[in-house]
Write a structure and sequence with these properties.
The protein is of the alpha/beta class and 369 residues long. The chain folds into two domains: 225 residues, Type I PLP-dependent aspartate aminotransferase-like (Major domain) (Aspartate Aminotransferase, domain 2); 127 residues, Aspartate Aminotransferase, domain 1, CATH 3.90.1150. It contains eleven helices and 13 strands. α2 packs parallel to α8, α3 crosses α7 and α8 packs across α11. The chain is globular.
Length: 369
Amino acid sequence: MTYVTQPFMPPLAEFMPYLEAIWRNRWLTNAGPFHEELEAELADYLDVPHVALVANGTIALILALRALDLAGEVITTPFSFVATSQAIEWNNLVPVFADIDPATCNLDPDAIEAAITPRTAAILPVHCFGRPCDVDRIQEIADRHGLPVIYDAAHGFGVRTRGTGLLRYGDMSTLSFHATKVFNTFEGGAITCTTAAARQRLASLRNFGFTGHTTVSTTGMNGKMSEVQAAFGLLQLRHINEAIARRGEVSAFYRRALGDVRGITMLAPPEDVELNHSYFPVLVDDDYPMSRDALHARLEARGIGTRRYFYPLICDMPAYRDMPAAQAALPHARRIGDQVLCLPIFPDISEVSLAITVDTIRACAAARG
């Protein structure tokens, strides 16, 4: 079976010196030397002022929202992984779903503005598939209404727009280093922020709220990253440019091989953006001779794993569909949710798997009529 993604694993021999150092140090967690080194190297690589490492991407979202002491509603997208909305609810906030721009699959700034009320506390957009949101318009709206912006950048590792690190935008951005992501630390995540004060607050929140050896100044949690995870992240950084380049080759192959298939639509590459090629979504529209779900099943039968990212919409899941905020008209999100199919993409994918994927899609298209 070829899965939709597979973690990049550097040579095991290169990881052994890190493990040997951890065994010598006997420093397994609580901001050890590898942890501190990874924070510094990530800040440099991602072109951001400050990085706070955490245990996973969901905790990153929860702590970023907690750090801002919000109350009320948070405008977000229904077209995302459910953790985006769950983090809002963990902070006793209410998710309000706005529609997406069908060209980007990101929150539509006009829909954001239409959803703002006196109860709105923040905006939480997602850089879906690592493609940048309209950061300028979102910031203009946020500034005009006095709202913070926290970006869910779980897919956005290493993306640059107009020569600048994507994670520089907004008040904070959160990253996931889950095994399925472009950059992984087994499990893990991070929050990027613009000020040293915000970085210090996040460091306190991830460590039970401690602000000194014996002083707890706020309600925090155990959200720390271990030394083993941080060491693996340092090793990943040595290979990340090569891994992203290989993903780019796979993306280019799909664009060449599927560009003329009627009924298969690929999102247009954004201008002046260095992508990380974290996912390769296609839309199976009405001109294709079978439904998205039928094509998904056909590929699965041939050993090719695909994912319907993101279906169903968060607002249609049992935990959310009865909420008043889930009843908004979301025509673009619903159409994209019914059509989207992410094809396998990862650095080690075989030529055989790519050929089977493309041949199956083209063969099904040829069965038209």
